[in-house]
Every structure is written in C-alpha cells, then in structure tokens.
Amino acid sequence: MQMIQKADTSGGGTRRRFFGRAEFVGLVVMIVVVGGLVVDATKTDSDNFYADIIRLDNVATKIHQSYVEEIPSEDLVDKAVEGMLEVLDPHTSFFKKKQYDELRIHTEGKFGGLGIQISIRDKVLTVMTPISGTPASRAGLQSGDQIVEIEGKSTKGITIEEAVNKLRGEPGTDVSITIRRRGESKDLEYTITREIITIHAVPFYGMLENNIGYVRLLSFSQEAGDEVEKSLKALLDRDLKGLILDLRHNPGGLLPQAIEVAEKFLGRKSLVVSTRGRLRGQNKEFYASSSPVLPDAIPLVVLVSAASASASEIVAGAIQDWDRGIIMGDTTFGKGSVQSILPLDKDHHLKLTTAYYYTPSGRCISKPENAVHLEDGDGDSVEAAADSVEQDTTVYTTKAGRIVYGGGGIVPDTIVENELPELAVRRLLLKDVFFKFANSQYPRLRKRKAKLNAAFTVSDALMEGFHAFLDSIDFEYSSHAKAEFEAFKQHAGLIDSSEDTTGAEDIEKPAWTDAELAELKRISARVDSVLQVLGKREFSDSEDEIKRLIKEALLVREHGQDNEIVYRVRLIEDDQVGKAIALLLDNKSYASLLEPPAKPTDGGKKSKKK
Fold it and tell me: What is the 3-state secondary structure (H, E, C) of 533-561?
C-alpha cells in the first residue's frame, strides 16, 4: 500500500550523461538516508554506515577514472540502486518518471486515454474490451479488434508499455488508429479524442436472490470509499437482507481508502488498523471517523482469496476483529507493509517499506515470507524476515472473544477454497481459446440476430463449431495421463533439450543406443495417439464448464467486460458466492460463527498457543 506524498513530477525525459564523484555519492546517500531513516542510530552504526558509503564512493571513482570505457552515470547508479533494493523486501522500488506516473494513474484511477483494455494476442496488439461510456466505446471499437497502426505507424513488434504510451495523452487531443476486424474486407480508420478515463473501484453491484446484495470492490483507488457508499445506499433502498463484499483478487491501494471502506461497516471511532515501524513517527492508529452505512442488523460476508492483499486485508481484518461479519474464502496474501513514496528529485522517487500493518486485535498482517529476501554468497536463497514479522504463534481474540491467530494474512472464519478447473479447461484458458473462438463466431451470430443475453445457451451446433475451431488451430488435447507421460519423456531424454521446459535437462539422462532411441520414439508416438483420444474424452467430461466459458466469452464480446449481464452470469456459477448466500440466509449458522468459545481464554487478552 502506498502513502503518496506530494512530489514535483514536472520536467522532461531522462537525459543520458556521465557522472562526477560528488553527484554519485550524493544520490546514493540521499537514497539510503532519505526521510531521516538513519536517525537514532548509535555512533558505531553511523560510523560503519558512512565508512561503507565511502567504500562505495571509492569503487565508483575508480570506475569513472580507470575503466576501459566511459560508463553513463545513469547506468551505474541504476545498478547500484538495484543492488541495494535486492537486500530489502520485494515491495520496495525505485521509480523513474514514467514508472511514477504509472503508479499515480493506478492509485488515482484516472488518466487521459481512449478507454480500452489491450493485450498482445498472437503477436498482434488487440483490443480485449472497450470500457463502457468511453471514447473507444462510443466510436464503436470492439473486443477482438486488432490495432495494426497508431498515428500511421505499424504496431508490429510493439510492447504493451509502448502502446499505452502512444494511446494515452492529454484529454482533448486526438489519436488516429487503424483497426483490422474479422468480417471486414478493409482495415478501418478511427480518429478518437482522448478523455479522462475513470477506472471504477466498484465495477458492479446488485441484488442477488432473496434480497442478498453483492458489491465487487476491485481496487482501493481514490474513489473506492465513495463508490462503496453509493452502492450500499442503493442496495439499502431495495430492502437489503444481507450483503456480500467481494474482495477476491483485490491487490489493495491507498490506505485512506481502506479506512473509508472499513468505516462503512464499523462503528464510529472503531480502530481500523495501526502501523508500527522503526521510527516513532511511523507508529500510528487509524480510526473510523463516521457512522456505518450498513446497519449492524444486516449480516455481512466478506469474500477473500489468496490474491487479496494490503488494503483488502486491512478491511477484512478489521471486520473480523470487530465481529462485524464473516470472512469466507482462502487465506489472504499477507502483504501487510506500508510503502511511503519518497521524492529524491523531480524525476526519481523511492517507494520504501517503512512500517507494518496490524489489525485491531494486534495481529501483524505481513507474512514472514513476504518480508526481506536475500541470497548468500553461493547464490542460494535465504529468507531474512525482520524480527517484527517472525512467525507469530500468538493467540489473539476478537472483540467478542473469538480466537484468531497471527502469522500473517487473514485466515477466513470459514474456508471455502476456489476450485481449479479441470486440466482440459485450464489448457483452453491458457491458450486464450474462448476469447479467440468468441471473436470468430461473433460476426455470424450477429448476422443471424442471435440474442446474446443471460438466457443465451450454447447449442450443439455451436459446440461442433468449437471442436472444428480447435482442430483448425491444431489444439493439442491433454489429460492428466498425458502430462505425466510428457514428464517421463523429458526425463528419459525423448524430447530435445530445447523443448524441455521442466528443468529436466539438468538431470542425468539414460544413454540410449540409436536403435533403442528409435524404438522408444516409435512407441512414444503410439502412446501419444492413445493419450490424444483420452484427452478428448476428458475434454468431453468438462463440456458443461466449457459451454459456460463459451457463453461468457460471447457475452463479453457483446456487452463488455464489466457489464451487469456478464457479472450475473458469472455469479450464478460461482461456488463461493453460492455458499455466502446460503450462510447469509441461515441465521443460526451465521450467528454461531460469530460466537466466542464456551470458555474465553485469559479474559480476552493475548496468550501463547498451547
């Protein structure tokens, strides 16, 4: 999570120049001690620190004076910074201007652009989906459109970062793009005026069955608190009986927004989260400043996943510790550290971990494995977690006396794991087959005036077309047995090392004679044929799931990624949402999960596990 401080980000691009001794040492010292991070050090520590800096200065000076070629200062400083960051946690970063601008866009949720999600598909820049209500949507751009030119220049070989830089710009300015669309004989030319694009923190909310409300919170950008409040008030106007707050795969965002979201559910002046760091100024407590929007009488389930992190964990932890709702899903990521954005100069910033987050009961959210990572002299990995986030074996209690444990992340009150699709379906998803098939079929379905809505069903004829499409792209059917056989072939040396992606080339393999190798490859080919048949059979066993994903891909193609129809179709088949609804409708089970144990431990104080 970032605590963004005011910084001057004006100025032009980075200039490439050569360094002087004072410049190099000055920047390195500024990076290390910026913000007073070395205050309160003992005299010995300080002496060692400056001795090390002088040693670094001497190395830089020798390179500057005597190396066979001149080295640009930017290159040398970048490598020095990279080396320093390697001994810190993975969340500390050094930003140049473009990287910092991207960070601001991510946290603010606004930028000047067209309003499309793009990706590289089959080596071509492709529109994944236009965002509703944006210039791209109004201009008629469609999912699957290939962007072959931007401002008259070919996009062949372009990266996502390069494409984003070309498509984004000042609101009110124009950008011309050339589109290649399936079913069109000629490329299409568009000139689109950029606008401020707002990425909604709540892309969908709505009422599900039995007056159970659902709010999908995707990020904690600057509008998160307001959007959550708006959605809650709209649901309350429709006789809300229970609420699901979906924080799955939410990576976090801004601390103030985490507090704003939490206070929609907690009582005024309730502690939401505290921070503790090396410096006295980093030890803070944050409280809800307003009355809750959701009445206490309305039951609440918060869905979390292993990818719920940072601000998501702050909200889930506060709701759990105050017994305001049930946390359901998988144990969260455990990214419980504070990153402060510290300006170095007008073009460079340091995102530095300065503290850890603690829930109201005192649990540290950060997992030890997400802390400091080092390598020893032999290049082997060494975990060097800070003392403050060592494996926590302490028992904590919620306000009502329920037992919760430390150790990092938020452990749900009820575990409901997110089941992985079958291998056949995973392979289809990995190859992006559903997206490609939807784009190939969409023009035909539109021509036939097929109604692509929630009632749409995938017919047998469409499934036959899907199988034909797989054959046309030489899709290789797979099964669990084939996966095992592929591993055997790699270890047996029946696959060229250039094709070996498992690391089996590092293992000593049998020394076959030419005759033995030829016979083994002949047998292997026959087994591959049999396994292809078994793969098709396993594929047919997953037909219902495949039909659902075909339908979803076609609905996204018709309505866009964040359309209500698309969300509702997904939620119908969502097992975790189904279990959350069932729990909210079962008052007895819901209440029992919030009850403390029969014999409270130590009067609600912390104690060690027995």
Answer: HHHHHHHHHCHHHHHHHHHHHHHHHHHCC
